[in-house]
Amino acid sequence: MDHVYPSNPEFVAKANVSGMDAYRALYERAEQQPEEFWAERAAENLHWFKKWDHVFEWNPPFAKWFVGGKTNVSYNCLDRHVNGGRKDKTAILWEGEPGDTRKISYGELLRLVCRFANVLKSRGLKAGDRAIIYMPMIPELPVAMLACARLGITHSVVFGGFSAEALKARIQDLGAQVVITADGGWRRAKEVRLKDAVDEALAAGDCPTAKEVIVYRRTASQIAIKEGRDYWWHELEEGMSEECPAAELDAEHPLYVLYTSGTTGKPKGIMHATGGYLLQATMTMKWVFDIQESDMYWCSADIGWVTGHSYIVYGPLSVGTTTVMYEGAPDTPAFDRWWSIVAKYKVNIFYTSPTAIRALIRQGEQWPEKHDLSSLRLLGSVGEPINPAAWEWYHRVIGKGRCPIVDTWWQTETGAIMIAPMPGAVPQKPGSGTLPMPGVLPQIVDLDGKPVEDGKEGYLILRRPWPSMLRTIWGDPERYKEQYWSRVPGVYFTGDAARRDSDGYFWILGRVDDVMNVSGHRLSTMEVESALVKHPAVAEAAVVSKPHEITGQAVCCFVTLKKGDHDPRKLGVELRQWVAHEIGAFARPEEIRFTDALPKTRSGKIMRRLLREIVTSHTVAGDVTTLEDMSVVTRLAAQQDED
Ligand code: WT7
Fold this sequence. Notes:
The protein has 20 helices and 30 strands. The protein starts with 8 loop residues before the first helix and ends with a helix. 5'-O-[(S)-butoxy(hydroxy)phosphoryl]adenosine binds at residues 260, 306-307, 382-385, 407-412, 433, 494-496, 508, 510-511, 517, 520, 522. 5'-O-[(S)-butoxy(hydroxy)phosphoryl]adenosine (WT7) is lined by residues 260, 306-307, 382-385, 407-412, 433, 494-496, 508, 510-511, 517, 520, 522.
């Protein structure tokens, strides 16, 4: 029997959606009359300069929503609140890692955004151009995003933890005209030197489109300024007007591209459009986070990932809430930093990842106990399956048994939350995302697309396009078709395995492809393999994930070396560092194992399944008859015991 947690009656009474019947009514309406359903939501919840001609256009697998409609994300997030009585309401409550703080009202945020939009304009940038944003978690990051959105410049935020190599690949793929960055940011009391990485990415002239770099001064450390290419943000802003009209953009105008790992070594540029994206980010703020006018809302993610795009910036600002932003790490200066922020700002809604929860569990309950967490009324989880034990801890120690927990399943590609409980309506079960959002039609199927029975594991697919769905992979529509719409023809393939229980609740089990999930960050095995084989000593590499107590999964590499004299201990350290340099610190392998050969099929494919079994169970089972050299596997498995 699964343990069921109904939300407390006080919460239910005040919720935006109260009771199962209310949820069912919304869900059924969206299922039966999707166009009418979304049209009503779009008219009620967003501002349009011009109404759409028709709601939905489907040339499989390419979707368009609110065709012919004109809107602007920045206008929806700022101007309409300033005009509608929220001018002095706090939009962003920011806390820097060293303890510096800023409180920015909607009125002030609009002025900041307009002024920076005018800077972009003055550099000759216009709708249709692209900007790479590589910044720390400071208010100027959302300012830059919203300024781009205001003008129709498609932005791509690159997480500050990515290396110069990864940054370069993204600048190139996007063909960005400008890079917006900062000298650095703070993490664990150390400076993350962002501008150095930008210099490295642009050094060899490998990014010919990126003619200019705009640098915000955050850490005030010494950086190089290249004449005629690099400009200080504050200098460009001098004398700029604080007014800038929002462009009336097509509902399908590309708002942003966010790169994420696929099954090959090359990251995919997930492209999101304007109207449908904002609508679903807005609706899920109301449905899942039950946002109310007086709420203090905090999502602890980094804006460099999709969670931050939809649930720190666009969703929260679209509904006119106060969004808390924190620059640094949860353990700096001590393990109670988050709880001190919750208490200080009287946070009502808190959204984080299972990895973070597990890391905090390990430190003990004394840290949250030091602070008054009574302001909290709702907790959220995202990024990977949450193990029931972590769920129960979160519920008991942080939520004091009083706060519902919304376990939200979604992806970079989906743009917004797809499966999660509406907390005033749907009783929760630890470890289950529970039920789908209105307009989302998930199903568990086999590879032929045949539904599997409740309780049985299968592939999670989505049967129907939704407004915030990715529109394509930037510059590669074929890959978009092939990745998402071909594995099971005609439906969206999520890449996740899942099962549905007899209450109709969904349980996500994890990826079925070569995508790993390390601390809720997506990483492909191929990406790490490509990084490894670039090293002069490496002949071949195979990468698999293994379960990890804190990060969910950890990267484990099997490496064969070229002939030569190698000190495996030294080389192991070097290769871990190498991967961090090639991709980013979060990709640093947990383990490097040297071997004289890799297990392969007769056709030469590396048998990752076997390697996975070796790292997880230490034994090898199942069908291995296609193996070329069984002795390799035996040796690899045996090596475990020697370690
Ligand atoms: C993959 C998407 C979307 C926000 C952050 C991750 C896994 C995400 C859950 C959850 C179980 C989850 C899936 C998914 N995932 N949320 N609540 N329960 N698994 O975005 O980097 O695009 O990764 O994260 O495997 O496919 P992403």
